[in-house]
Amino acid sequence: MKNPIKNYLLKTALLLAAVFIQACTKNFVELNTNPDAVSTSTPQFIFTKAQYDGTANMLNLLLGTMQYTTSYNDVAGFGSKYIQSQSNSSSATFSSAYPNEINEIGEVIKGVTGDPSKVNMLAQARIWRVYCFSRLTDLYGDIPYSQAGQGYNSANYTPAYDPQKDIYANMLAELDAAATSMDPTKTATFGSSDLIYGGNTAQWKKFAYSLMLRLSMRMTKVDPASAQTWVTKAIAGGVITADADIAKVAYVGSGQDINKNPLALTLLNTDYIKANGSSNTEGGKYQDVFINYLKANKDPRLPVISVVYTTGTADTTSANQKGMPATLSAKPADFVTYSEPRQNTVLLLSAPRLVFTAAESYFLLSEAALRGWYSGATASFLYQNGISSAMRQWAVIAGAPGTITTNQINTYISYHQLNTSGTFAQQMQQIYTEFWVSLFPDAQEVFASYRRTGYPALTPNNYAGNATGGLIFRRMLYPVSEQNLNAAAYKAAIARQGADDFLTRVWWDKP
Q1: pLDDT by residue (tens digit) across 78-116?
Q2: Based on CB atoms within 10 Å of each CB, which residue in 70, 157, 231, 461 is the most buried?
Q3: In the chain, what is the greatest distance between 2 CA atoms, to the nearest angstrom?
Q4: How open is the CA angle 55-100-191, to the nearest 5 degrees?
Q5: How many CB atoms lie within 10 A of CB 447?
């Protein structure tokens, strides 16, 4: 016999379930849609973020490797000591790049492709993409390139690594195509969303050709014929030679951290925030190699970038500056007497981050003239212009505290003429030792130049427990996550390029 109570309860439950389901589905889409989300991206906004991220993604440990700074702390001093236990910190730039600037600039390119009115926006996005990828491949060698950033659009989460030789060929072709495609009659630009040039097509073109000059010079040992061809094209296109055309990202210096100069912010937070010379959290100071060189050459940049706190206040007197040895393993008793970055120049949160300078162009042009690839000026004249531009750019960075007078610049140049009667190697050493001083604090670019040219002639720090056998790095390590999540592509890359270690040379880095 049927149980009427059971039937009643069953019908009631079904009725309530129906009511509940109806209630749940009513306004379902509205209730489950994020009112702050957008269905389509805005390329201008993403371009700004891509510029911020691409500029901020620096491997700051290279400040120690290029012997600008050091620390008595083994962990913080990895860049100058090469401690084995800290090796994986070298993968930081790789890990950060793909989910940030590489993904972001890819979305910008997708958003402006196909619209003839946005040809300049597309060109500028392509140029910035080359900048971001070039910094990455120069650190690691073979990297995901042609399949990079396709996780969101194509569900490709295991991209292949491209050979660096192919990456360079494509980057140079991209710069050429982007530069020639820009049309000054088209009015659509990124405008104020472009933190570097405000959408100015003429300046972006100079930036493109300047990057072309930088990258083509990388190939002087591995493919000199192609290097000369691309150098010639870059010079003909017009590179950055005026202070007004320097590629730089501006920062307001307050509010959220993204609005602050990323290098200054990092250095302040890790070491120099108290500005007293003794409370440096990570034990960082300028390295003796750098300070000794500046003092020995009576370089007027020394008081601009360096201070000591022996009297309790910031002292910029050149004679009082002193660099710390990279061999220390404990805090020295005289720690306060060592020099560190100046607060209102190197550590200025509102200072622009220089991406490509006139000084770099002039030094590269000087080498081109030395090789016979450029006849527009002598190597000596271009070398002198490089020095002058590099000294002037500190005023671009810091205003009055960074100003070096014309008389100081001319005096320095008069005592540091290029030895035109010297050998090719001797003149290269002069050019790229000045390059080392002049591009500070862009240690990452100096690291690339050092590997290609061998200058400045730095002596490695053979510190106990180091990961390189007492040699300076040749490349950085891939993230451990690549071995686990992208194993096939990772294995193919190291089979082609060489072991995933610090002494494997990238394609263009030949003895």
Answers
A1: 999 999 999 999 999 999 999 999 999 999 999 999 999
A2: 70
A3: 116
A4: 60
A5: 23
Strands (E), 294-437: 306-307, 340-341, 353-356
Specify the length of the chain in residues. 511
Measured distance CA(325)–CA(442) in Å, rounded? 21
Per-residue burial over 76-93, b if 16 or more Cβ lie within 10 Å, else e, is bbbbbbbbeebbebbbbb
Distance CA 233, CA 227 (A): 10
| Rounded distance between C-alpha atoms, residue 120 and residue 207, angstroms | 14
Helix (H, G, I), strand (E, B) or coil at 306: strand
Q: What is the pTM of this model?
A: 0.92
| Separation CA 381–CA 443 (nearest Å) | 25
Residue 16's CB is within 10 A of a number of other CB atoms, namely: 10
Q: What is the mean pLDDT of residues 116-140?
A: 98
CB 189 within 8 A of CB 199: yes
Helix or strand (DSSP H, E) at 204: helix 201-218
Q: How far apart are CA 197 and CA 192, in angstroms?
A: 8
Q: Where are the alpha helices (DSSP H) in 256-311?
A: 262-267, 288-296, 302-305
pLDDT tens by residue, 416-459: 999 999 999 999 999 999 999 999 999 999 999 999 999 999 99
Calpha distance 335→315 (Å, rounded): 15
